[in-house]
Fold this sequence. Notes:
Layout: H1 2-23, H2 28-32, H3 39-42, E1 45-52, E2 55-62, E3 73-79, H4 86-93, H5 95-102, E4 105-109, H6 129-133, H7 138-152, E5 155-165, H8 167-178, E6 185-189, E7 205-211, E8 222-223, E9 235-236, H9 239-249, E10 257-261, E11 264-268, E12 278-283, H10 311-321
Parallel strand pairs: 3-4, 3-5, 5-6, 6-7, 7-12
Antiparallel strand pairs: 1-2, 2-4, 8-9, 10-11, 11-12
Amino acid sequence: MHAKCGRYFRQYFAKFLAPLIAGLGLTAAASAQRPTETQAVEVNFSEHVLQFEGRERAYRLFVPTAYDGKSRVPLVIVLHGGGGNAENAERTTRVAARANTDNFLVVYPNGTGPLPRTLLTWNTWNCCGYALKNDVDDVGFVRAVIEGLEKRFAIDSKRIFATGLSNGAMMAYRLACELSDKIAAVAPVAGTMNTDDCRPREPVSIVAFHGTSDLHVRYEGGPNAKRFPGAEPRVDKSVKHGIDFWARHNSCAMQADVQTKGSVQREDYACRHNGSDVVLYTIQGQGHAWPGGVPGVRNGNVDAPSREISATDTMLEFFWRHPKQ
């Protein structure tokens, strides 16, 4: 009996799980590796677990070398893509290196999945995987992480920001909708706001990045033409659906100021009278990727990322200009 069960699991793994893990660029060894950063940066990371909703939930924390516990500093939440994890999120974004320069904390929460540290997803309206099927309270988990860190560190409550790629970008939008009392600004990358039921209590500044050739999350919305093995088919809202919502909610000008440089178009909806803003960067010809990121699926980039703009540098500069009022 045991031999039959073992054989069945190996066949199931070979047919379903192995292709998905390989497609995401993750192996058991790779998922356990730390991100490719210098040793000086790496020692600032720590791993943490908290009990939430009957589950052990994990996150990775980066504390900059200059942090002294006296001056209040910003907190940036970085959310991995579907099938990734906290380490993958850092490989994708390289936010930690900027944290040491600009003196802010970075937290990389882990989603949930069938395995402890791989195939992790976020529950974002119609996506994705384990988190969606099990109706995981990811918004509550992120709130618990924020409030726990606020008790332990000198965090500036007006400068808490979130970003993410793909399913992580969708989660960033959901945090803006449901944690507007905590979040000052979000930066979704290659993800859309797939809901008509967003009810924020306060303005939240938005800076979004999306490629016109993205087939995993289409710029104009519609069925996802590409997806990872085992991932569910999905119909996404358009990029402009989320942008238009936030422009209205933040009382912005609905006619954007448009600037184009090379393949990058910047649309600024100018809501500056209440301190918020909504900006969209459209990258012509880019697929499902983090602009300015390291090429390779293992780095979170399914397609080749643009070299004309750095999403990380651009969003951080946007964050610093848009604290909560």
